[in-house]
Inverse folding.
């Protein structure tokens, strides 16, 4: 069965199953609009679906997905800023109460960053996107020339921390945090065993969520 045909068949099952069972709630969302309390910045990786691993329903999460779940710093130029635009909408229009940066193990974007030698000339969109945390790679690798799984893991966690720091460069994030109306979190999901780790409030360490 071609991939698209599988999706069409899935939609038919959705209409006959989930949609009929939850028609009232879905119709209400359609008429009244969305009002999620949480915004999640997640990786585009097909294995990391926030609504699935967090067992959420339609309308619960405002999800922003990109390569390696990165949040760039606030920049005011004429370029296109998809992630920043989505964050702006989540904070100013939806007035979400929390923003979660959700990273994961075996991240392809992080692996490419670690595996690519510094100063490599590559004009691909993905490479340029990952260059925003090149300094994180340098911090993780140090003077080491041998790449280990620990390097990937550390870079994934430090990438989450850098995104949280970048998030604080947006003035409307700063304002709502200062007013106690917005909280930010860094989470790291383990693909191998389904466990979830959260960045500690007062340190850069990640602790498993019980």
């Amino acid at each position: 069965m071609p991939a698209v045909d599988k999706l069409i068949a899935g939609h038919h099952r959705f209409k006959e199953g989930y949609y009929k069972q939850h028609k009232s709630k879905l119709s209400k969302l359609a008429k009244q609009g969305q009002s999620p309390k949480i915004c999640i910045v997640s990786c585009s990786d097909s294995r990391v679906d926030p609504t699935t691993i967090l067992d959420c329903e339609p309308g619960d999460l405002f999800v922003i997905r990109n390569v390696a779940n990165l949040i760039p710093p606030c920049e005011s130029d004429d370029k296109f800023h998809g992630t920043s635009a989505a964050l702006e909408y989540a904070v100013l229009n939806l007035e979400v109460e929390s923003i979660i940066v959700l990273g994961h193990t075996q991240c392809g974007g992080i692996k490419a960053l670690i595996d690519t030698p510094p100063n490599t000339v590559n004009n691909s969109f993905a490479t340029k996107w990952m260059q925003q945390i090149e300094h994180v790679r340098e911090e993780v690798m140090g003077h080491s020339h041998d790449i280990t799984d620990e390097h990937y893991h550390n870079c994934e966690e430090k990438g989450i921390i850098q995104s949280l720091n970048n998030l604080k460069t947006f003035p409307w994030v700063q304002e709502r945090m200062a007013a106690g109306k917005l909280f930010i979190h860094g989470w790291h999901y383990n693909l191998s065993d389904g466990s979830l780790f959260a960045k500690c409030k007062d340190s850069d360490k990640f602790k498993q969520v019980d």
